[in-house]
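Pasting as-is:
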Amino acid sequence: MRALILAAGTGTRLRPLTADRPKCLVEIAGRSILQHQIDALHAVGIDDIVIVTGYRAEMIEERYSKTAKLLYNPHFSKTGSLHTMMLAKEQMKGAPFVLLNADLVFSADMLNRLIKHPAQTAVLVDNRLPRSDGEMNVVVNDGMVAQISKAVPAEVSDAQSLQIIKFSAEDSSLLFLEAAKLGRTKNTQLFPANAYHSIISQSSMAAVQAEEGFWHEVDTLEDFENCERLFLQYV
């Protein structure tokens, strides 16, 4: 099992914390978000890690060039995370891997629940989180994902995606084939989730309910403050 971390974004909503560093190097309880992720990956036995960088890439290179394979998105300021993901096509297509955004702090037990789940392709979700329009909402039928998108209205969703996903070797091929089609459109601001429908329709994606463990997205200054406070309570 490999891991792909998307870390190209500028993190404008976290300024001034990201004025001099990429979002993934913002520290939560004394460790960068990226270090939290790498520690969790190592704890579940995943050491083959690819990180796609963009904004302030040299800072990630300085710290993690010996820990992970680093790729660079030179168009990070103009493209969304689907285009960033496509830069790792050679490393990930046809291989089982875990996909992560670089703004998530999560515990190893949360990740382990996903890795150990019998479904080969699955996403962590939480039906306890309050849903709102514009989040990565999920419709679940009999434990399987029927829809997953920021376009899914909160009122029809069953859970929110934690955006920690594992793909089987076969489904990673489906993912990159669909992403390549989307990449040829004029819309450069797409998410990997825009390509998930090919897996949902041609294969399957299980919804794995998050239970014990810690997870928090760090997208805004309020997220940062809440994440650090809740993480210190968790540990």
